[in-house]
Design brief:
Layout (H helix, E strand, L loop, with lengths): L3 E6 L6 H12 L2 E4 H14 L7 H10 L2 E6 L2 E6 L2 E2 L7 H10 L3 H12 L6 E6 L2 H5 L5 E6 L2 H14 L6 H17 L12 E4 L5 H14 L2
Helix pairs in contact: 1-9, 2-4, 3-5, 7-8
Bound molecules: cytidine-5'-monophosphate (C5P).
Cytidine-5'-monophosphate binds next to helix 2, helix 4 and helix 8.
Length: 222
């Protein structure tokens, strides 16, 4: 039978990345950061001079993406065509391009099998927007992680401050709301909880509290 899967979907800034990594570490499971694949596709498009609305070319690019993920200490490093692009794919510019290419059916189709290939024993923690709805509809546990837009903006602001980046809280809030609207309103694989997902509002929860709750729920499911 297939390896177990825990899916974590939700809007940006709800803590999915951190929570997924910690849960995967705790369980000794594999980790899929599906957003990184959309970011890498957007970056590959830029490198190869492919326009962000050329669906046919972008679909092929996604399917043929030359990517290697290296697990290293606390983080995962991403190599695109042999180059370490771990930092570059985290920029706001690449994130924005990622959310554009993510609206294209051919791109989502091109990345589908690659995402499913991450499912290996003993299990997988899959982080994204459509992990429970499209990529792993038979997951063992589906979580939809949320937090108020204000709280997500506050967390992002803190993160940026810690990284020494100046940022404006109210413009971060506007960006977050715009990205949410785009991800929820798109016709292909829109951001929404799977019917059998548990929605967990993390606004008032600490990271260890969320990790604890998820591992408990997973244990209950056997
Ligand atoms: O999660 P992250 O910010 O890295 O994702 C970047 C963008 O990729 C998101 O804004 C979203 O539009 C898209 N995405 C997606 N489906 C996923 C993961 C990410 O559409 N499973």
């Amino acid at each position: 039978s297939e390896a177990k899967v825990l899916t974590l979907d939700g809007p940006g800034g709800a803590g999915k990345g951190t929570i997924s990594r910690l849960v995967a570490e705790r369980l000794g499971w594999h980790l899929l950061d599906s957003g990184a694949l959309y970011r890498l596709t957007a970056l590959a498009a830029k490198r190869h001079g492919v326009a962000l609305d050329d669906e046919t070319a972008l679909g092929r690019l996604a399917a043929e993406l030359d990517v290697v993920f290296l697990a290293e200490d606390e983080s995962t490093r991403a190599l695109l065509e042999g180059d370490d692009v771990s930092r570059e794919i985290r920029t706001e510019r690449v994130g924005d391009a990622a959310s554009q290419v993510a609206g294209l059916k051919a791109v989502r189709q091109g990345l589908l099998q690659r995402q499913r290939d991450f499912r290996k024993p003993p299990g997988l923690v899959a982080d994204g927007r459509d992990m429970g709805t499209v990529v792993f509809p038979d997951a063992d546990l589906k979580i939809f992680l949320t937090a108020t837009p204000e709280e997500r903006a506050r967390r992002r602001h803190l993160q940026l401050q810690e990284a020494g980046v100046d940022a404006n809280l109210s413009s971060l809030l506007k960006e977050i709301q715009a990205r949410d609207a785009r991800d929820m309103q798109r016709s292909v694989a829109p951001l929404k909880p799977a019917e059998d997902a548990i929605t967990l509002d993390t606004t008032r929860l600490s990271i260890p509290e969320v990790v604890e709750r998820l591992t408990e729920w997973l244990a209950q499911r056997g």
